[in-house]
Design goal:
Keywords: Ribonucleoprotein, Ribosomal protein. With about 170 residues, the protein is mostly helical. Helices cover about 55% and strands about 5% of the residues.
Length: about 170
């Protein structure tokens, strides 16, 4: 696989070498994996961290200041700094875990039949915005995503019927 002079112990020591330096003579690392997301190596750390779902400008700045590393290019990080960066990002809820948490919260709102859950089910804005002339984005999503619309309509109809039954009792 690797045929170079003096590479007898290369496969056994490659992980140690990568952790120390993250740059091999014949191979350059293109991007790093932090928080189950590939972050680019040609951007500054603060901007590169914002590619992770759940890490914004403030959280990225907070992570960098807690680690005490400067805001330099991602490719200039050492292996130790990269590992500490991974550990620091893993303390927060990011990526797929955050998406599952938010989806679970929305499902819980629909299950308890709250107003916000009903608005989410109908794919309408749920924070008091007007819908006569605005909410274009939500309406476009409803038109584009026909399969989701039928599911949300079914849920909305079920919730309406359930509310009517509760009022009759």
């Amino acid at each position: 696989m690797f045929s170079m002079r003096g590479s007898g112990g290369l496969l056994t020591s490659i992980s140690h070498h990568v952790l120390e330096n993250l740059s091999l003579r014949w191979q350059r690392v293109q991007c790093f994996r932090v928080g189950n997301t590939d972050i680019p190596d040609n951007k500054r750390i603060e901007v590169a961290l914002q590619h992770i779902h759940g890490v914004g400008h403030r959280r990225a700045h907070q992570i960098i200041s807690e680690l005490g590393i400067g805001n330099r290019l991602t490719k200039d990080l050492t292996g130790v700094e990269l590992n500490s960066l991974r550990e620091e990002v893993s303390k927060y809820l990011t990526g797929g875990d955050l998406r599952r948490c938010v989806d679970g919260d929305i499902k819980k709102l629909a299950d308890i039949r709250s107003y916000r859950g009903f608005r989410h089910a109908c794919m309408l804005p749920c924070r008091g915005q007007r819908t006569k002339t605005n909410a274009r984005t939500m309406k476009e999503h409803k038109r584009r995503d026909k399969g989701h619309l039928t599911r949300s309509q079914n849920l909305a109809e079920w919730m309406e019927k359930r509310q009517e039954r509760d009022q009759e009792k």
